[in-house]
Amino acid sequence: MLTIAPFSAAISFVVNIWGTYNNFWLFTPILEPKTASILPADIGLFPVVACFNIHFIQKNNSHPFLLILMFSIGLTLIEMGIFYLGKVSYFNGWNFIWTFISYLIPALITYSYFCLLKTKGVLDKELPLI
What is the pTM of this model? Predict the structure, then answer.
């Protein structure tokens, strides 16, 4: 949680700033700056989902990419619901396939970061109790 959540929040910020300022999507309510509308997802939903994804990868014998694919499809389906509720609008050719890719690539980057942390022994260290 202490390593994956901040990393995935940073990726979420980058992706959502890029998408918002390139006019691919817009979330409601529309706040100023425009990226403030997606802030709850950037610091809440996406870090939690990334942590769950990594947790299930660690605890499951399934192939990691299968779980990443399932989580990406799940997030895309959630966003489809949000889209049909009118809370997000797509522009400039953005669609659900691009939405899926925008979840898949950050999930793969987060998994790569997790693997890097494992190889460097960061996740093996015991934290002292205070």
Answer: 0.82
